[in-house]
Write a structure and sequence with these properties.
Layout: H1 2-11, H2 28-37, E1 47-50, H3 76-89, E2 91-95, E3 105-107, E4 126-129, E5 141-148, E6 155-159, H4 167-175, E7 179-180, E8 203-206, E9 209-212, E10 219-220, H5 226-242, E11 244-246, E12 253-257, E13 261-265, E14 278-285, E15 304-305, H6 311-314
Antiparallel strand pairs: 1-12, 2-14, 2-15, 3-14, 4-13, 5-12, 5-14, 6-11, 6-13, 7-10, 8-9
Helix pairs in contact: 1-3, 4-5
The protein binds 2-oxoglutaric acid (AKG) and fe (ii) ion (FE2).
Fe (ii) ion binds next to loops.
Length: about 325
């Protein structure tokens, strides 16, 4: 029913970006069926896989050479179905300054970005990070849909709840503030001084367990804080120990709880011939509580497109 509904939505003129305006065309029976599978991974593992949920969609042709050159018409129905599923999980949104403000991001290896800490990199390890850590309204869920993955390149996922951390490290990382800046996919859209001078904490406790906000390549640690640096290093190492590699196959969606698990990716060699790995990504807001101190953060002036209403609450 996903394929039929996506086709009907496309015929009606909808795209993933305007799905929220066409919600009346989504059958309630589909929302109900998806609500059964679309449960947030609020478990200690921090992720879940919706195996083959988009596998009925045809191969959309060659992998684009960058997000900029993706032909949105070729994946219009796949993107609509992905956005529909994301909208059952929660409230999907995009960032005005990321991938032209689109809801569905294309994550493909990109020439010139090989060694950067962004989704388009390849020959370096993409280090552990929680998505959009710099922002108080970052996604609670990160959805990665696999279009193509012929070389079985996985996403590494590590839950802070499975990290072997001492009480002393948890206490230090929960109280010592750091400054997290936007990553290089936001280049040119912010300037120094728009941040919140180092009030962000790496860990916090919630009723159902420990949560994390962690993006080492883009973080400034306070000067003269050797204990914090050491605790940070131990956090990274314990994520290495706790991490799992999840290699999606075409049609799979990997759902990552962005407050519980960090993600990363090992280096790989891109071919740039249209056969490379191709993921689609949607960011989703949930209902969960973050530290009150975050409410005062300015988020470097970054503007969201959405969040759009969840289909689940409509149904
Ligand atoms: O390529 C991957 O497996 C993950 C890339 C990533 O960090 C992201 O899309 O947010
Ligand atoms: Fe990421």
């Amino acid at each position: 029913m996903l394929l039929e509904t996506a086709s009907a939505l496309a015929v009606a003129g909808a795209t993933a970006d305007t799905l929220h305006l066409h919600a009346a065309l989504v059958p309630q029976s589909l929302v109900a069926a998806l609500s059964e599978v679309a449960r947030s991974p609020r478990s200690d593992s921090g992720y879940r896989v919706l195996k083959g949920i988009l596998s009925e969609f045809p191969d959309p042709g060659p992998t684009p050479s960058s997000w900029k050159s993706a032909d949105h018409e070729r994946t219009r129905e796949f993107d609509l179905a992905f956005a529909l599923i994301a909208s059952v999980f929660g409230k999907p949104f995009g960032w005005k300054s990321q991938q032209d403000g689109r809801l569905v991001h294309n994550i493909v290896p990109t020439q010139g970005q090989e060694t950067m800490q962004v989704g388009g990199s390849s020959t370096v390890r993409l280090e552990w990070h929680t998505e959009d850590s710099y922002h108080p309204d970052r996604p609670e869920l990160l959805l990665l849909a696999c279009v193509r993955n012929p070389d079985d390149i996985g996403t590494d996922i590590a839950s802070v709840r499975r990290a072997d951390l001492s009480e002393a490290d948890i206490a230090l990382l929960s109280t010592t503030p750091v400054l997290i800046e936007p990553d290089d996919s936001y280049a040119g859209s912010w300037s120094e001084g728009q941040g919140d001078e180092g009030k962000m904490t790496t860990l916090w406790q919630t009723e159902d367990g420990l949560c994390m906000r962690f993006d080492p390549p883009y973080t400034r640690l306070p000067e003269d804080a050797p204990e914090l640096c050491a605790a940070w290093r131990r956090l990274s190492e314990s994520l290495d120990q706790a991490g799992m590699t999840v290699a999606g196959q075409p049609g799979d969606i990997v759902v990552v709880d962005n407050d519980v698990a960090a993600h990363a990716r090992r280096p790989f060699q891109a071919r740039y011939d249209g056969t490379d790995r191709w993921l689609k990504r949607i960011l989703v807001r949930g209902e969960w509580k973050r530290p009150e101190a975050e409410l005062g953060e300015r988020g470097y002036g970054q503007v969201q497109i959405g969040p759009h209403p969840s289909l689940r609450s409509a149904g």
